């Protein structure tokens, strides 16, 4: 028993200390506590909703519907990016980072993008949605970012905590299968799009 505990502890240490970059600066920059990007996205989303309420004449019901649309659209974007970018045939820095995550799934400092990338991502999304949706962009991006924060939370807890003994364990089961077979189960927030596009694990 004691020997098994030592082996388990050693494996856990390997998970936490594995390096993606030899350059110490790049290695430091790619790490992030999961709470940082989650906080950035939630605070930004709340700020966008407050700003929209104070500066636009869009009805509350319309704002709510656009917000929920942003939530749903994110789940599709999440699925497509995960499948077509993180698991693309061609190599990229994004695919390299995701491959590292598959190799070391327990490394807590690599469950989310670094803070600077979180901020840059939020800015780029705002400019893009602002160009397309005008004043509707505030509530749409708020929903998109809240869904993004939800994705980060779900992804983190499925890697850090043991699955609960209730219906919520579907998230753990769905994502765990993906780590054993990266050709299926690309959705993290929801398995919905895997069912739609036929990439859910075949029983």
UniProtKB/TrEMBL annotation:
Compartments, as annotated in UniProt: Endoplasmic reticulum membrane
Principal cellular location given in the protein's record: endoplasmic reticulum
Domain of life: Bacteria
An example Gene Ontology CC term for this record: membrane
Keywords: Endoplasmic reticulum, Fatty acid biosynthesis, Fatty acid metabolism, Lipid biosynthesis, Lipid metabolism, Membrane, Metal-binding, Oxidoreductase, Transmembrane, Transmembrane helix, Zinc
One Gene Ontology term from the biological process aspect of the record: fatty acid biosynthetic process
Pfam families reported for this sequence: FA_hydroxylase (PF04116)
Domain Fatty acid hydroxylase: 68-199
InterPro entries tied to this protein: Fatty_acid_hydroxylase, Scs7
Cofactor annotation: Zn(2+)
GO molecular function: fatty acid 2-hydroxylase activity; iron ion binding
Membrane topology annotation: Multi-pass membrane protein
Transmembrane segments: 34-52, 58-81, 110-132, 138-161
PANTHER family: FATTY ACID 2-HYDROXYLASE, FATTY ACID HYDROXYLASE
Protein name per Swiss-Prot or TrEMBL: Fatty acid hydroxylase
């Amino acid at each position: 028993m004691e020997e098994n505990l030592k082996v388990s502890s050693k494996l856990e240490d390997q998970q936490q200390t594995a390096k993606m970059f030899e350059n110490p600066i790049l290695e430091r920059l790619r790490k992030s506590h999961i709470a940082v990007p989650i906080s950035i996205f939630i605070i930004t989303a709340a700020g966008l909703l407050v700003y929209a309420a104070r500066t636009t004449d869009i009805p509350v019901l319309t704002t709510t519907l656009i917000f929920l649309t942003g939530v749903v659209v994110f789940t599709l974007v999440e699925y497509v990016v995960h499948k077509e970018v993180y698991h693309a045939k061609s190599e990229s820095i994004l695919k390299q980072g995701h491959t590292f995550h598959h190799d070391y799934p327990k490394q807590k400092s690599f469950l989310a993008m670094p803070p600077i990338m979180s901020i840059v991502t939020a800015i780029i999304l705002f400019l893009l949605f602002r160009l397309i949706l005008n004043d509707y962009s505030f509530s749409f991006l708020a929903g998109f970012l809240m869904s993004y924060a939800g994705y980060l939370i779900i992804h983190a807890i499925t890697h850090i905590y043991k699955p609960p003994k209730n219906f919520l364990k579907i998230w753990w089961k769905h994502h765990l299968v993906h780590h054993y077979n990266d050709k299926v189960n690309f959705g993290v927030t929801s398995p919905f799009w895997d069912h739609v596009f036929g990439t859910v694990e075949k029983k």
